[in-house]
Each structure stands twice: as structure tokens, then as C-alpha cells.
Amino acid sequence: MLKRLKFWERREPQVCARQVFVNEPLPPSKLDKKGRPRQRYVTNKITTSKYSIFSFVPKNLYEQFHRVANFFFLLLVILQWFPEFATINPIVAALPMFIITGITAIKDGFEDFKRHVTDRSVNNRKTWTLGNWTNYNYPNSTSKFFSFQSKISEKLNEKEGPKWKETMFKDVRVGDFIKLNNDEFIPADILILSTSEPNSLCYVETKNLDGETNLKIRSSVPEIDIETPEDCASIRFFIDSQPPAPNLYSYNATLVFPDGLPDRPRSRGGPTKIPVNLNSLLLRGCVLKNTEWVIGLVVFTGTDTKLALNSGETPSKRSQIERLMNPQIFANLVIMALMCVWCAVGTRVWEGGFIDLDPPFLVTTDNLSYNAFMTFWNALICFQNIVPISLYLSMEFVKSVQAFFIFMDKEMHYGITDTPCIPKNWNLSDDLGQIEYMFSDKTGTLTRNVMEFRKCSIGGKVYGEYTSNKGGGAYEAENESVKKPFTDKELLIDMQSADQLKSGTIKDFFTLLAICHTVLVSTNSDGEQQYKAQSPDEAALVQAAKDVGYTFHSREPDGIFITTPEGEKKSLREKVLEHYV
């Protein structure tokens, strides 16, 4: 019970392996005494916000009182409530601290509210899951009314049959069949069962995980071929999967078919087992690209996904100036404490010289140490301006104004999507412009991975009629969708030259561009061929070869097919060599 009350603690991932059953009733060993599954799964609802309605006040005050100055101001407020130290009304003395903590709380609450809005929009996104179908990994309702209602719905579902239905991301469950379409976000960690592409391949964009915009190739389980909801409802197997783990580059599981595959019955009296790895797993946060559809099975949801396990809790970001202020304020407090001690010791020594004279300005001479103790706290109140409380109030106001200026700055406005610069954390505005070094592993970040074939050198001669625009990078960014084909009059003349060495070298060059790649071809509704490349570099090279006349048409298991400018069709064998680091 106490563990449930600790809502601020992060949930630990499961350490035991999991079995996900598909169209297979759970064995008795997986059920409890009431016939419900022992294995419980988290929901697919994600939360990146720091606070909730109940935790906002205590958690925000805990973070604010990380500042040494706030503790000092709280001590002064407490002292003002005692009549011996009261200089002004205690409420008036507490007002500056209340203003500072209140403004900071409002600012933090507004920032966290934006996180809640983002979480709600992500959780309410729509995807397609298999409906009119039973997921055996979850218990049925124990209520008599709901169980009676579920029986009626099951009968209706049997008449209608399985079909794809729209489902919110937060309602996706482990063991659900899911269908993803092109350019859709992946709502959970999904095992690929079938794709629309040849050789059961698909492409995903993983920039939300590792920052790479180049597309990654993923493949489905080759032994499974399903396309319709009926196929999903008829196939029977279960998955022996490893427990949730944060490693983005490792995953191991086994698909177990107790009755064997449709085209491969049980051999030697045992079930058919198929091992799978990360190459068949789509991770949450990625985007499906250049693939018409993918059918998969949900393996991990919510906080069990690799993205959530690597995200951690939302940190409390503090600027460099704020981090420097704590030791400086601490030094001021030490100086002020020494001054208060000096006043207390001086009071004790000075009053000690008047004990025998019985002066009228001494209230009592019985306990001079007590008088010195009271002097220390009174001196603390008198010297409180050494730690300026107005400094924090000014900083919070300046940060808010700076965040507004950043939002309204036209030079930070992105014209293509009409998006202003939105400061999501106001605490970091005073860190702007303090970057001394910037390291980049490659130029993809600077070029935005927008590639265009401009010129080439063949046999020591440069070809290409590309001329740079006068507008520079800003002009090109606004017109990035307009790409000019690669042309050169001298190139066409040299290709038809009587010099066999020159023309042969040019033909070999563009032939290699047309075949040495991993690009796939698809046909849109207008009948036009579209290239689906793992990286924009490959797409630009293949498109340049097409502009010259060497058109890549299709990739088959026995080779690759292209056409030349003379109309000749070539079928060339290929072997893809991949290097894994």
C-alpha cells in the first residue's frame, strides 16, 4: 500500500522475460486462482510532465528551496513571528518571499502545463488496431453485467468478423495487431510481421531516438505472410521475449508456433521456433517512411518501451548563472554570520563591564549570555540586506521578458512552416550566446540532408551546368522542393563520341550510379516511379543517373533491372555488402 502512495518514484522496468500469446489461450501456469493472467502490462499512456495536481506544491517547493537564499528568507520570516524579533508585521515580512516563490511556481506550472498538452496530443493520436478480436493477454471483466455485455459483443463480433479500427495511442495494448501506414508515428515497440514492400522490407526514420535522419531498413519475420484482418485472427503463436531493456541496439525474442506454420507443419513432433532480433522491431518514437503499410504485433508499451526507458525523468534545468549564485550567496551568509557573532560577542563583553554599575539601559544583568544570543538574531535581521531578495525577483522578471523577446524575434522565425522560436524552458535564456565550441561528426546537420546532384568529374573532365542562386542558403531553403534535373550539353556529346574510351567511361560511370545502391522503386497513383532510399545521398545519385538516361526500374531476387539511353534493358546481378560497426 505504501508503495502505491509513492507517486513520485519512477516505476522500475520488469526484470523477468515475458510471453505474449496470439490467438492462443494462456496455459494454466500463466493464470492466477481467479483465472486472470499473472503477467500485468503497463498502459501505453506516456507522461513527460514533472508535476501532477497532487505533487505540484510539495515538489515545486522542494525544488525552489534548493536555493540557499530561499532558506535564509524563510528563516527570517519565522523569526519575525516571535515578538522578541518583530520589526514589522510578520505578513509584510513574508510578502517578498511569497512573491518570489509564487512567480516561480506560476512559471514552472505554465511550462509543465505545456508538457501536459503535448502528452495529451501524443496519447490521443490515432492508429489502426485489429478489432472484433480477442486479446488473451488481458483479463475479461469480472462484473456480471459487463461479462454478460461482453458475451453479447463477442457474438456480434463473430458475425461481423475481425476488422481494422481506429485506436488512440494510449489504448494500444501488448499483444494487439497493429497496422501502420506511411509517414505515421510508431505508438509502441512493435514486432514486424508483414510489409507492403518487396522482400518484406520497410524504412523507418529514427531521428527521435538517435538524431539520425537517414532511413533505417527493417525487415519482417520472413516465415509469416499476413495481409488481411482474417489472416491476423487465424494465425496462432506466442512470443518468448526478453524483458524491457534500455539498450537501443539489442533485442532478442523467439516466435513459437505450437502447430507449426501453414506451409511448414510440425516437424519431429515439436513446435516451430523462429528467432528474431532488433532488425524486426520498430521502436516507439520512430516514423514509418517510404512504406505503404506494415502489420505488426505490440510487444512493449508505455514505460516499458526503449524510448521511455532511455528518457528518464524530466530534469530540473538550472542556468549557469543560477548555479553560480548559490556559492556566492553562501559566501555572503558566512560573512553575515561572522558579523552577527561579532555583535553577539561584543554585546557580551560590553555589557559585562557594567554589571557592578547597574546601568538603567540594561533590562537585566542576570543572564548576559542570553542577551548576546538575542543580539545575534537581531543582528541577523538588521544585516539581511547583504543577501538581496530583490535580486531573485529581478531575475525571474528578466527571464520572463527574455522568453517573450525570443518568441517575438523575427530572425528566429522559420518561414517555411511559419513557426516561431518557442522557449520551452525559461530558466535557460541567460545561457544563450555562451557556446565556446561546437563539435559535429558530419555535415548532415548543417545541410539538413537535402541532397542535389550538381556536378561530377569523369575522366578528369567536370560535367554539370549548375549555377548557385544569388539568394544564398536562405533562398535555397525556401525553394528546396524545386530541384533541377542534372543536365550538360557537353556530356551528351561526349557520350556519343567516336572515342570509345571517353564514351565508355561516361557510360560505365552512370551505369554504376544506377546499380550500386539499396534504393527501392514504387509506383504512385499517377503511374510515376518513385525512389525510396535509405539516405538522401543515394536518392540524389540514382536520380542523376535517371536524368542522363540510365533509369533504375526494379530490384528482383535474381538481379537489378535498368534501361540505358539507347533503350537497352539490362539485368545485372547484385550483392549488397553491409558493414556493421
UniProtKB/TrEMBL annotation:
This is Phospholipid-transporting ATPase. It is found in: Membrane. ATP binds at residues 441-443, 538. InterPro entries: ATPase_P-typ_cyto_dom_N, ATPase_P-typ_P_site, ATPase_P-typ_TM_dom_sf, ATPase_P-typ_transduc_dom_A_sf, P-type_ATPase_IV, P-type_ATPase_N. The keyword Membrane applies. One of its GO terms (biological process) is phospholipid translocation. It is an enzyme of class 7 (translocase). Its cofactor is Mg(2+). It catalyses: ATP + H2O + phospholipidSide 1 = ADP + phosphate + phospholipidSide 2. PANTHER family: PHOSPHOLIPID-TRANSPORTING ATPASE (PTHR24092:SF153), PROBABLE PHOSPHOLIPID-TRANSPORTING ATPASE (PTHR24092). GO terms for molecular function: ATP binding; ATPase-coupled intramembrane lipid transporter activity; magnesium ion binding. The keyword Transferase does not apply. It comes from the Eukaryota. It comes from Gigaspora margarita. Its EC number is 7.6.2.1. One of its GO terms (cellular component) is plasma membrane. Its main location: membrane. Residues 37-93 form the P-type ATPase N-terminal domain. The chain crosses the membrane at residues 65-82, 88-106, 329-350, 370-393. It is a multi-pass membrane protein.
